[in-house]
Amino acid sequence: MFEKITGLFNRQKGIDDENKLLQAIDRNKLPNHIAIIMDGNGRWAQRRGLPRSLGHRAGVESLRNVVKLCSELGVKVLTCYAFSTENWKRPEDEVSYLMDLLVEYLRKEVDELHSQQVKINAIGRLEELPHQAQEALKAAFRKTANNTGLVLNLALNYGGRSEITDAVLHIAKALDDKQLEIKDINEKLIQQYLYTSGMPDPELLIRPSGDARISNFLLWQLAYTEFWLTPVMWPDFKRNHLLQAILDFQRRERRFGGIIKK
Ligand code: FPP
Question: Which residues bind Mg(2+) (predicted)?
């Protein structure tokens, strides 16, 4: 009985906090692009005596909530780090669980995402993913291709270094084929050869779980991004954490290497 009342009280408090945060946020100054390193699933599970896989499964729920909130708020792009080029080093069963979870997520969520006008996209060396994952991605891309709402960018088999390497290879090939000349090479051109071509750079990077590393994520694009770190593990990351991150972002002074005249 007591637990039931505490639960209800906490839920009401969460809603009150959310309303306060929503009122404090300036809708005209939302970050256009938010990037998230969804970290801490394994530790979340281990602390509960559960297998790591259940931490990843719980992480999907946080992903679902964050996508919905970004979509409601009108954020343009959300990039979530779901599997890095280094994650293949994990035990085979964890890797295959993650790949199955991806397929399950795409199949189960695509209709809901479609109804929210979410456009599903992915960045990374997708051609190296298991066949089933590639097929599920292609189906999700096809279905949501014309949506005009949030772009959900799933970083899969993604590495910032391999992205830059791929861009260099493509530029070198274009030079070789005489489609480009050396004088054409500048920052704008390099951006066009990244997986995120055509997207704004992230303005806000969120990393839960207490680690303060970039972990080979969006190395080029994060040049002037504001970082928001929290000890909360990804499966415990709630709507209010995202709202707090956005509010803190709006209170930062962004100078881009210059100075602000007062
Ligand atoms: C890092 O936590 C997380 C991952 C490598 C996977 C992220 C995947 C999800 C959140 C599932 C949803 C994504 C899909 C497939 C759509 P960790 O395992 O490194 O945690 P730890 O640092 O505590 O061990």
Answer: 39, 226
